[in-house]
Specification:
Elements (H helix, E strand, L loop, with lengths): L14 H51 L7 E9 L2 E11 L5 E9 L5 E10 L3
Antiparallel strand pairs: 1-2, 2-3, 3-4
């Protein structure tokens, strides 16, 4: 085919147009990868807090269902839940009402990261 018989406007993209399109696609792909990383991190954080809340609620149920009220002061312990070790601290003190105890429960994971806080009240003596 001779040069005279070719159309003057050829179909297709130029090299510069392809490079610009590739750059835009690359930026979008990097943004999506970053979003995925943030999502996975937040999912793990939510899972840790959920297990921490479960541990705190388990300690609360044990405290509330024990026939004898807990003694004033601090108690600590460790519980296995979800295949992980959780350390908990229970601080029992008086409340503004003399017949009721205020019990604060804090849970941390095996790395020492805060996982849950819970405050409950129970009668000091029946």
């Amino acid at each position: 085919m001779s040069m005279a018989s070719r159309p003057s406007d050829e179909a297709g993209f130029t090299l510069l147009e392809m490079l610009v399109a590739l750059a835009v696609f690359s930026i979008a792909a990097l943004a999506l990868l970053n979003l995925e990383t943030v999502t996975v991190t937040n999912t793990n954080r939510i899972a840790d807090r959920t297990f921490g809340q479960i541990v705190a609620h388990n300690i609360a149920v044990e405290t509330l269902t024990d026939p004898a009220p807990p003694s004033l002061g601090t108690a600590t312990g460790e519980e296995l839940n979800g295949g992980r070790n959780w350390q908990w601290t229970r601080v029992t003190g008086p409340s503004p009402e003399a017949r009721i105890l205020q019990i604060d429960i804090a849970v941390v994971d095996e790395f020492g990261d805060h996982a849950a806080d819970l405050t409950i009240f129970r009668f000091a003596a029946l």
